[in-house]
């Protein structure tokens, strides 16, 4: 039997779990090492707090388009499977400023039923709008599904707190993948000062009659409504740069509720704001990064002087779920290119 190449992944958020699953399914023997796992609720464990749906970005930089396309198509396929919690929902995005974009052909080729809404059909104060069909996820259930798929495929896991990337350089490990998210700013051996927190506050309400995602972009404010599989609806939100406080603010929650009801009056079915059944208030720290996602490989030495391929995959800001599968596939491509390059170098010796 051919020995599989061993990979250690640091981090078990949506990026670490998805990357682990992709590598495990593609012939690697993967072990995920993390302090926090699905089911844990820690403000520095970002993934459980996300709204988690894919919202088209007409202004998206071309270098990130492949990541979103791969993720959207994969999650769309998962929406037909049981137990994933991924569902298909109609979506409407509105902007208070005219983006002066004529339909974005690349989005029309990806998103189901994508179209630019004619200006005469837009509400007062809205200058640009799009409609489409997308996917949303029940985050706790989806993270558990990813973990179960990973372990069922033969992947292993270890609950541990690492202080330094070198702690993952075990003697028989050939590849280490860094999926530390917001912790990449302080994690030993990485210490990326381009990483920062963007605090987001959400309100979860019980509104099973709401089936459509809506978003309204107004200057620096984004209001959004995300239905989930079980009848929960996520209301947001905020975007507080370099804020690390994990405690929900009551005044902010009130502002979110008022903005969301204005955007989607059917939330309270004409019974008033006080009739909303609030399930919980949450805060998450988005793992933002100047220059965007870090997706690259490098070679480092372990304690015995052996070359180890290190691949970085972090800095997804609010797009972790929307680009998770795409970035995981990019990691696979980067690793395979690095392995081939190492083999060529060895052959030259």
From TrEMBL:
Cofactor annotation: FAD
Keywords for this protein: FAD, Flavoprotein, Oxidoreductase
Residues binding D-dopa, per UniProt: 217, 224, 286
One of the GO BP terms on file: D-amino acid catabolic process
Keyword Transmembrane helix: no
GO cellular component, one term: cytoplasm
InterPro entries linked: DAO (IPR023209), FAD-dep_OxRdtase (IPR006076)
Residues in FAD dependent oxidoreductase domain copies: 7-333
Pfam family, one: DAO
Chain positions recorded as FAD binding sites: 46-47, 180
GO terms, molecular function: D-amino-acid oxidase activity; FAD binding
Family: Belongs to the DAMOX/DASOX family.
Name assigned to this protein: FAD dependent oxidoreductase domain-containing protein
Organism: Glomus cerebriforme
